[in-house]
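Record Glycerol-3-phosphate acyltransferase, 220 aa.
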Amino acid sequence: MNALAIIFTVLFSYILGSLNSAIIVCRLWKKQDIRDYGSKNAGLTNVLRVYGKGPALATLLCDLAKGVIAVVVCRLVVHKLMGVEFFDDPHFIGYLAGLFVMLGHCFPIFYGFHGGKGVLLAATTLLAIDPLTCLCALVVFGVLLAATRYVSVGSIFASIAYPTFTFILQNFVYKDDYAVIPNTIMGVLICILIISLHHANIKRLMNGTENKFGQKKKEA
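=>
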C-alpha cells in the first residue's frame, strides 16, 4: 500500500505539473507561444513582462490552483482513502507531491520537457504543505525583491532559506523527530531544483544584464 501511495502521488503530481499554465493561458489569450518571446521562459515573470497584467493574473491563478490541488488531492487519497502515513507526519506526502508537481512544471512531458522555473508553483505548493515555513521563506523573498528589484535574487535566496526553516521549525516548533530529516531532504531537493533552473539568471546577474522587476526586456 505504501508503494502504491508513492506511485499515485508521483504520477498524479507530475502529470498535473506538466499542464503549464503560462503556455496554456498565452495560447488561449494571445494565440502565441510564450517560449518564443522575452526571456523565452514559460513562467509568470516572463508573461507579465511580455503580455502584461491580464495574462499574468490568469497564469497566477492557474498556478495557485495547480500547486494546491496536487497537495490536497494526494493527501486526501493517501491519508484518507488509502489510510497510509509516512514517518507519522502529514507533511511528507505533501512534499513528495510538491516536488513532482514542480518537476512536471519545469520539465513537462506535454511540451518537450521545456517549462517554467517553478518558483511561483513552489511558493503556493509549499504554502499548502506547511504555511509557517513557507511564510518565513516568503519574507526572505519579499525583503530581497524590495532591496534589489531582482525576482531571481529573491527566488534563489528564499529557496535556500526554505530547507533551513524546515529543519529549524521541525525540530523546535513541530518537534516531529521522525520527520525532520525526510522533510528537510525534500526541501533541499526543491531548493536544488529551483537554483539549477536559475543558472541563466545567475550568469546575467554576474554580467550585470539581468532585468529588474517591472522592467521591459531591452531590445537587442
